């Protein structure tokens, strides 16, 4: 079990946070999972048949939190990409696709990290400066003052605003996974708990055992 600690700097800030740790078998039920994806995408299309950005995200806590950093909430862009632009659902790494599906269906921010690439314990902390780290897409990113972040003995693991790092993000060979689920100060903890339940349901389709 990954040890996750919290730096005292977070004591004054309320950031709901959840994490699901999974050890997958080598053989995954890819076809069953993609059948589930198709069902969920169809349900999304019906649910947002008359999609209006302001109605869906205007009062969204994530949207407002990212706006404080002059950033656009990435989950909103992902949802619009699938719903409005017809972009296909990612189909290259089912382990990493699980949180992507969660983000689409719940609009809650998540991620996927390879526990075998984490060095030591994971520490959650409140960003106080722009600390650089290599992002999961190979570009240099940085944390932000007031940002919700995590690090291990090797450096930054994730930033709520900037995303996951390149070193620990889930790869195609990843089987020991930590799925973080992020909240913002305005988000009720019940939203995180419900998202964790939904995530576990998706995981059990991909790996019933």
Quick structural summary:
The protein is α+β, with helices and mostly antiparallel strands and 209 residues long. Helix content is 34%, strand content 21%.
DSSP summary: helix tally: 6
What is the first-to-last residue Cα distance? 18 Å
Radius of gyration: 17 Å
| Poorly predicted runs | none
Q: What is this structure's SSE topology?
A:
Layout lengths: L3 E3 L10 E7 L6 H18 L5 H5 L3 H8 L5 H10 L10 H13 L2 E2 L2 E2 L7 E5 L5 E3 L5 E3 L5 E5 L2 E5 L3 E2 L11 E7 L6 H18 L3
Parallel strand pairs: 1-5
Antiparallel strand pairs: 2-11, 3-11, 4-11, 5-8, 6-7, 8-9, 9-10
Question: Can you tell me about this structure?
Answer:
The protein starts with a strand and ends with a helix. It is built from 6 helices and 11 strands. By secondary structure, it is of the alpha+beta class. The model has no long low-confidence stretch (mean pLDDT 95). A hairpin with a 2-residue loop joins strand 8 and strand 9. The protein is globular and about 45 Å long.
Output the keywords.
209 residues, alpha+beta, five-stranded mixed sheet, 6 helices
């Amino acid at each position: 079990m990954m040890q996750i600690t919290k730096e005292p700097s977070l004591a004054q800030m309320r950031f709901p946070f959840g994490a699901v740790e999974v050890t997958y078998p080598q053989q995954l039920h890819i076809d069953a999972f993609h059948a589930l994806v198709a069902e969920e995408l169809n349900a999304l299309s019906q649910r947002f048949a008359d999609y209006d950005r302001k109605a869906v995200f205007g009062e969204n806590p994530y949207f407002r939190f990212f706006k404080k950093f002059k950033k656009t909430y990435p989950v909103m862009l992902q949802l619009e990409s699938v719903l409005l632009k017809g972009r296909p659902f990612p189909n290259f790494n089912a382990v990493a696709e699980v949180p992507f599906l969660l983000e689409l269906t719940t609009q809650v921010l998540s991620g996927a990290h390879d526990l075998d690439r984490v060095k030591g314990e994971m520490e959650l902390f409140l960003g106080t400066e722009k600390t650089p780290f290599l992002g999961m897409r190979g570009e240099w990113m940085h944390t932000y003052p007031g940002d919700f972040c995590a690090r291990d003995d090797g450096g930054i693991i994730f930033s709520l605003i900037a995303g996951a790092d390149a070193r620990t993000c889930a790869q195609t060979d990843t089987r020991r996974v930590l799925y973080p689920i992020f909240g913002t100060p305005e988000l009720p903890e019940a939203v995180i708990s419900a998202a964790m339940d939904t995530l576990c349901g998706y995981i059990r389709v991909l790996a019933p055992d």
